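Notes to self after the call with IL:
- keep both proteins in one doc
- input above output, always
- annotate only the second one for now

Protein 1:
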Amino acid sequence: TVYVNNLIDTYAATDISVSASSFNGNIAAGTAVATLSSTDNDPGVTHTYTLVSGNGDTDNSAFTIDGDQLMIVESPDFESKSSYSIRLQSSDAGGLTYQKSFTLTVNDLNEYPTNLLVSASTFEENIPSNSIVSTLSSLDPDSTDTHTYLLVHGDNSDDNGYFEIAGNQLKIKETPD
């Protein structure tokens, strides 16, 4: 009888995979963006992961690794950085390693406007009915977004009935005195 002993850790990993190649913008700092895994011809071998220097390591400092979780250090903002380039290494228990570079992209999510602006906050009395008293605009991180304006009920809305909005123009309904 001949017995064949399985030599553990004979082969280095042949690939590293990330569970996701993109993640949403504006997620919290420290959020896991992907799970790491390795392809290895040695069954049952565990791997540890590190960010390493080399081709494709431009944004390594933007991430940390906790076990098999790739974590983003700071909340990503698509408008300032839409993709990251990292280089990972997989090491098995016997010290055999495999390295691979990845490009991860940030999904551009629609963000809320940050401010509502009026072109004028005062106007003359005795102007004609339906006069434009102000032009409305919005500050928005998503520069290509369009906005719709409405008069809404809430704090300081007692005089809404004197005005109407047409597009982005605030108009007074009747001649003010």
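Protein 2 (the one to annotate):
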Amino acid sequence: MYNYWSWFEVGVTKEDAALGKVIVVCLEEIENSRPFFIGKVGSHYGSTIEINDPIRISNLKERWGDWIETAIKNGLSITEIEMLYGVLLNPKDINAYFFIKNDDTEREKNEKLRNLISEIRNNKKDYPVYDYHSVDELGEQIKNEFRLLLNELYPNQEEISNLDR
């Protein structure tokens, strides 16, 4: 899955999907990108996964905890599982931002999507949440927030080159 505003590609291949490794790849990518997280919610709730193999469930629980089995059994989308793992259940503070598409059409039909948006907007650590209307607006918002974050993390811009920054 690759969106043109992304800074890196999430490496879910067709082979990974065929082998049922989507959730593993997604959660590993979150680990690789810490302490940063950008959560995007569009008009649709997203794909869910079904795992009936007790060994696979056991492996997931061993690596990520009991919550993952509950999330899968409750039919949470991969997107919601990513947001839970990356930010909402994460006890550590990270540089997290959420972007929610301002489009009520599909949301009215999907209770899980409405609940996810509510959970994001009411997150306990008060991570910033922004609304967007188009992909172009989303890209600009992410770019602006990332620049602000870079200025905060690296305030002495004169001391380093733009490339190093």
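Annotation: Residues 1-9 have pLDDT under 50 and may be disordered. Residues 135-153 form the longest helix (19 residues).
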